Amino acid sequence: MRAQGAHAGWLSTLGAWVLALLWILPLLYACWAAFHPSEFATKLVLTAPLTFNNFLIAWDAAPFARYFLNTTLLVGTILAMQLLLCTLAAYAFARYEFCGKNLMFSLVLIQLMIMPEILIVRNYQTLTKLGLVDTLFGIGLPYFASAFAIFLLRQTFRTIPKELVEAAEMEGASSLQVLRHVYIPLAKPTYLAFALVSVSYHWNNFLWPLVVSNSVGSRPLTVGLQVFSSTDQGIDWSVITAATLLTSGPLLIGFLIFQRQFVQSFMRAGIK
Predict the structure, then answer these.
(1) At what angle do helices 53-61 and 237-268 cross, to 10 degrees?
(2) Which residues, 6+ apart, have CB-to-CB distance to 149 below 8 Å?
(3) What residues make up the domain containing 81?
(4) What is the CATH number of the domain that holds 87?
(5) Does residue 68 lie within any of the structural domains?
(6) What is the mean pLDDT of residues 265-269?
(7) Nearest to 104 by CA among 153, 159, 151
(8) Structural domains counted in the chain
(9) What is the pLDDT of residues 88-145, one digit of tens each?
(10) pTM of the model
(11) Using CA atoms, how far apart are residues 180 and 177, in angstroms rounded to an integer?
(12) How far is the C-alpha of 212 from the C-alpha of 198, rounded, in Å?
């Protein structure tokens, strides 16, 4: 039995390493091609010279400064609105009893099963009527209310002891003060976990911004990368991978710096 258990553990470890290697191979290739001349992009020559020229070419080929600003504003606005609206909704679902509460929460859960791409046409028609096409606000508007955030926060709020709420109310705290000083501080791991998911998703979102944005003033990084896919001037994989690293670099650096906090937040934000 011990031999079988050790054998199974060895196979699990091997499988995990294989999956990790398959996952990181594209990133390793991107790093190799980006930091080496074009002629070595598809050749593994250990003596190949290093260069940063690919990053300079990529930076000059597109207005990356504007794209970074657009993406930062877009992701920050979406996250702020999600935290505000979803906190209030989750607080209502967790604390109050009202007519149709279970039905409304069921409708929220149903939204988790609907792919955002299904609503692209209808959302675009709505933005056209509102005059918000080709604006950062229009790109972020469909994501301001997150069913996933409402579900996570509602489950977290329900685990907070009622004694703490009653003690705050006895001290004269209003409903919003109870939310601010009791619920939100105790739900910080859940907020951090959702923030990680939200930022990474909207930083990398491509299809919806591609449909809505028509100019540099509203174009995020992911859409700006399409300039490197043009075949008019040929495809230089070293420049393309350099541009890709410029786009994904902030997320990778942020994760490497705060990986311990991210892992702890996900462990503490388990569904109860």
Answers:
(1) 90
(2) 82, 83, 86, 90, 194, 198
(3) 62-268
(4) 1.10.3720.10
(5) yes
(6) 63
(7) 151
(8) 1
(9) 999 999 988 888 888 999 998 888 888 888 889 999 999 999 999 999 999 999 999 8
(10) 0.85
(11) 5
(12) 20
Cβ atoms of 78 and 143 closer than 8 Å: yes
- Please check whether residue 26 lies inside any domain of the structure: no
Q: Is 149 domain-assigned?
A: yes
Residue with tokens 């074009």: 38
Contact indicator for 71, 220 with CB cutoff of 8 Å: yes
Q: Give dist(CA 92, CA 178) in Å, integer.
A: 12
Helices (H), 181-232: 184-186, 188-204, 207-212, 221-224
Give ∠ CA 109-115-118 in degrees, rounded to 5. 125
Q: What are phi and psi of 151, to 5 degrees?
A: -65, -50
Q: Tell me, what amino acid is at 191?
A: Y
Tokens describing residue 251: 């997320």
The answer to whether residue 31 sits within a structural domain is no
For the chain, percent of residues with pLDDT exceeding 90: 36
Distances 22 to 25, 147, 162, 221, 252 between C-alpha atoms, Å: 5, 32, 47, 26, 18
Give the whole-angstrom CA distance, residue 206 versus residue 221: 9
Burial 258-268 (b: 16+ CB within 10 A, else e): eeeebeebeee
Q: How far apart are CA 116 and CA 201, in angstroms?
A: 12
